[in-house]
Design a protein that fits this description.
There is one protein chain. 73% of the residues lie in helices and 0% in strands. With 230 residues, the protein is mostly helical. The chain has one domain (6-17, 34-218): Heme oxygenase-like (Heme Oxygenase, Chain A, Up-down Bundle), CATH 1.20.910. Helix 3 runs antiparallel to helix 5 (90-100).
Length: 230
């Protein structure tokens, strides 16, 4: 009788540790000042999305550098190429959504991403380039595992007073992230993962969860006027 596969092990580990992430999202969705916190959240969403494709491109380059001596490399590179195309331009769309809400793209880009966002992306980039590109799977697992529901998006749209167009890309993620998550966990079961690789992915997953919790938990309301053209 065989035990659980890598996907089941990693999913169970994530499930045991989602409490803090769930808590900060609950506080966000019920924030007392939605007109100021929701724009701040959408800006942060763009900042996180902006890092996704470059990190995957770095992972693909690292796979190519490592060559075929590692049995993981071929399937891993194929997955990153596939998922990169699924995520391509989402940051562009998110910025367009902010513009549709009446915000100036230049003002959005002028805002410095907070340390938690830099940690989220920076840790993954470091592990990809200086350890092993399989680690990035842990972060992708996290980012695909908390899709917003239609009800939540409708509520924050109505409470914030922002137009429907502001939530176009956010709604897209609500629809496609569950499929991307299921696809990833199925793919993980097809990889030649041993205990060491599972631990590597798990460590990356926990680091990403901690950074995501910090990103949302440290979010501060923003004066919408500061995001508009001078």
């Amino acid at each position: 009788m065989t035990g659980p596969g890598p996907g089941a092990i990693l999913r169970a580990k994530m499930t045991l540790c989602t409490g803090p992430v769930d808590a900060v999202f609950t506080r966000l969705w019920t924030h007392e000042d939605p007109a100021r916190i929701v724009p701040a959240f959408l800006v942060m969403l763009h900042q996180i999305m902006r890092a996704s494709v470059p990190v995957m491109e770095a992972a693909i380059r690292r796979c190519e550098e490592l060559g075929t001596d590692d049995d993981l490399i071929g399937p891993l590179a194929d997955y990153y190429r596939h998922h990169l195309e699924e995520e391509r331009n989402h940051d562009v769309w998110a910025l367009e959504d902010l513009e549709a809400a009446g915000f100036d793209p230049a003002a959005v880009l002028e805002r410095m991403p907070p340390p938690a966002v830099a940690r989220l992306a920076g840790a993954q980039r470091y592990w990809v380039e200086h350890y092993h590109p399989v680690t990035l799977l842990g972060c992708i697992m996290v980012l695909e595992s908390f899709p917003p529901t239609t009800e939540i998006i409708d509520r924050i749209r109505d409470d914030s007073g922002l137009p429907e167009a502001a939530f176009r890309t956010f709604r897209l993620h609500g629809r496609v992230d569950p499929h991307h998550s299921a696809e990833l966990f199925r793919m993980v079961d097809l990889l030649s993962l041993g205990p060491r690789e599972i631990a590597m992915i798990g460590t990356s997953m926990m680091a990403c969860m901690e950074s995501l919790t910090d990103c949302i938990g440290s979010l501060q309301p923003v004066d919408p006027g500061t995001l508009q053209a001078a």
